[in-house]
Amino acid sequence: MQLLSQQITPEVFADHESEVRSYCRNWPTVFSRAKGAWLTDVDGKRYLDFFAGAGALNYGHNNTALKGPLMEYLAQDGITHSLDMYTEAKGEFLSAFNELILAPRGLDYKVQFPGPTGTNAVESALKLARKVTGRESIISFTNAFHGMTLGSLSVTGNSMKRAGAGIPLVHATPMPFDNYFDGVVEDFNWFERVLDDSGSGLNRPAAVIVETVQGEGGVNVARAEWLRALAELCRRRDILLIVDDVQMGCGRTGTFFSFEEAGIVPDIVTLSKSIGGYGMPLALTLIRPDLDVWGPGEHNGTFRGNNPAFITGAAALREYWADDALSRDVIAKGDRIATAFTALCEKHEGLSHRGRGMVRGLVFDDAPAAAKVCAIAFDSGLLVETSGPADEVVKLLPPLTINADDLEVGLAVLAQAVEEVLA
């Protein structure tokens, strides 16, 4: 099929698309094709992708190992839409997920398909926690991001995003994330004290929701010991622990689940983005079996049965998670990024870095410098975004499958952009 892309210019979107559009403002070109870690625009210029669909493309663009099963499925008129009816594609996905992910890790979860995106998974998790416990309050953390619908926004920290709700966001209380006080104060002191203090005004919460690495919040990494202490606190106080693994799951930090390093077992886990393998919408809410108290249809969504995503999701699990090769590769590439960032930080004042696996952040004391670096990188053919409360962090989310040569190309472009801005 011949697309009309050569006739499309950015003006079409400025004329007809809502002002809410975002990423395209920083990357003002019309993309046409993509393969692996590269995108190509309508003029033939190639861009190395260190953004990966905000983490939805862990296995790269148009991955051959996933495209083959998808094309075969569509060619034989496989079911595309099925709500929550039983289909072969869903059964294959559930079997692969249990065989390759849950069983080897000794995890026992029921799988809910709440709708197509991460915020759907978070909404269902919050709703279920309140139903199970009979309590309303949810504890979240400073600089958290959990989604853009009202329940997810209530546990999100960003003031600009929260203001977009247009109504009070209630029944959620923020607590300081790990190292929020730069190590000066033990972060759990306040949390535990207000739980015990009848005069604190804190209602006993139904759940705590946490990201092990806050991506949108600035690549803030929770220590394993902090996560273990949080899990133990929740266990002692009969508070459910929800881990939001929408962006950090599916191998982004090295292990399939980002919480594995800490050795904790959350009561509820949310997954989306790369769980569909190919970049197609899919979300899961993983529920401890005794918490699965939903009535039929009590939480639903028209597009919770995305069968093409079941096909590519199962193919990704079988291709990349039958052994630990990808995990080891992610850790090695993450170490290479960290080494490159250390060299930059030693060369330039006002720079630091943090991260785990293949989510890495380069932190600028002069916040506007981060956006300048990203703009120069784009002009040089590299897609990379900012994050953090002041957009002070250049955040790297390359495809996990990127080859070593392409990774070096991107790191070199980024280093040159930093040099131009800070020199």
Automatic annotation (TrEMBL):
Keyword Transferase applies: yes
SUPFAM superfamilies, A to Z: PLP-dependent transferases
Organism domain of life: Bacteria
Gene3D superfamilies: Aspartate Aminotransferase, domain 1 (3.90.1150.10), Type I PLP-dependent aspartate aminotransferase-like (Major domain) (3.40.640.10)
CDD domains: OAT_like
GO molecular function, one term: pyridoxal phosphate binding
Top-rank EC class of the record's enzyme: transferase
Presence of keyword Transferase: yes
InterPro entries reported in the protein's UniProt record: Aminotrans_3, Aminotrans_3_PPA_site, Dat, Ectoine_EctB, PyrdxlP-dep_Trfase, PyrdxlP-dep_Trfase_major, PyrdxlP-dep_Trfase_small
Keywords, alphabetical: Aminotransferase, Pyridoxal phosphate, Transferase
Any single biological process term in GO: ectoine biosynthetic process
Pathway linked to the protein: Amine and polyamine biosynthesis; ectoine biosynthesis; L-ectoine from L-aspartate 4-semialdehyde: step 1/3
Co-factor(s): pyridoxal 5'-phosphate
EC id: 2.6.1.76
Similarity comment: family membership: Belongs to the class-III pyridoxal-phosphate-dependent aminotransferase family.
NCBIfam families on file: dat (TIGR00709), ectoine_ectB (TIGR02407), PRK09264.1 (NF006733)
Name of this protein: Diaminobutyrate--2-oxoglutarate transaminase
Organism: Gordonia crocea
